[in-house]
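Section 3.1: Structural characterization of target chains.
Under the original work plan, the team committed to producing a structural model for every single-chain target entering the pipeline before any wet-lab resources were allocated. The record below documents one such target. The sequence was received from the expression subgroup and is listed exactly as submitted; it comprises 337 residues.
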Amino acid sequence: MTQLPVVPLSVLDLASVYEGMSHAEALGQTIETAKLADVLGYERFWVAEHHGMPAVASSAPAVLIGAIANATKRIRVGSGGVMLPNHSSMVVAEQFGTLVALHGDRIDLGLGRAPGTDPLTASILRRNLGNETVDDFPNQVIELLAFFGIIAPLESGLGAQPAAHPGLGDPPQLWLLGSSGFSARLAGMLGLPFAFAHHFAGGDNTPLAFQLYRESFEPSAVLDEPHSMVAVAALVADTQAEADRLALPNGLYFSRLRSGARPGRIPTLAEAEAYDWSVAELDFVRARNEQQAIGDLDRVVTRLADLAESTKADELIVVPQGPDLETKLRTLRDLRP
């Protein structure tokens, strides 16, 4: 059997909400998953910011990170990510500075520039119908570095920027997230660690993003040399057929999103099995699964090893899939026996 790459292995959890499940149950399952990941020796446990999506309960990552950090002992806890244009940089610095003050050097702050939602919800979050905040993302990141005291305070026409307390002197480990060449280049130019959302973007262009990151890298106050991580959806079952069956609810959810349908909660396994799949939908799900790490243990380990080799990533972060908590926990156990 192929061996797992000798790189740190982490977990990204989307606080998934399935049909018939409450938000409390979804968040409780995320915390249970984090507790197991902590015991099993995973490096990090991240949650992602989404808004207006019935299938995702992690709309307030800083709050959820605090709960996870309280429930765990060793594992690093953070965001994968906070969508910075949705927020004031100073507020993000204060939130994550507070988390560092409470939990020490266990907190990660992964930053993204996408809204994590639809255009209408984004305009409500940002109180702006334009794209100025997205276009200003690089400046926001630099501003955040200054609020944490990683670089010197910035000057403006109004004088030096105010300090964030907590925040100043309490920096989390910073990462730049992305699913495109733009984010890869920006992470390199700013000298930040880079995490690529292969679980979302997929495709054969994933290795190119890592190449662009390394070619663009400039040493900074954060990093002397490039450091990167790749995110991949994972599901371990006894056979490939069983893994494909258990992946049907997530496949149907993503197929509906791709068609432009209004997002709902993730369907149950029974609903996904009873669904009248079109040939095009099945082809989409099959192609997506092939890009991820879904199958029996040998297939999943081989896929993780191939992805680590093709990207030369320094870390792997798996996004456990499945119609229920036990399926997800089985994947984490099998990858960390």
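The longest helix spans residues 23-40.
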